[in-house]
Write a structure and sequence with these properties.
single chain; mainly alpha; about 55% helix; about 0% strand; elongated
């Protein structure tokens, strides 16, 4: 068994191209590249000590006090 020869890999590549098509593979590649670039930028921001994303503003909520009462069937 061992490792595959170059012909095995060429056949697999041709089958993948036939199944997915070049346009879809190109889109997958660009999406993956963008995700890796975003991850690297986020890691650089974390190492520098600067936040990579803007901190969300703190929302002030209102508390409503209510008294729980049991419903009485009539």
């Amino acid at each position: 068994m061992g490792s595959f020869s170059i012909w095995h890999w060429i056949i697999v590549l041709v089958i993948v191209l036939l199944v997915f098509g070049t346009k879809k593979l190109r889109n997958i590649g660009s999406d993956l590249g963008g995700a890796v670039k975003g991850f690297k930028d986020g890691m650089k921001g974390a190492e520098a000590g600067t936040p990579s994303a803007e901190q969300p503003s703190q929302q002030v909520g209102h508390t409503i006090d209510v008294k729980a009462e049991e419903k009485v069937k009539s």
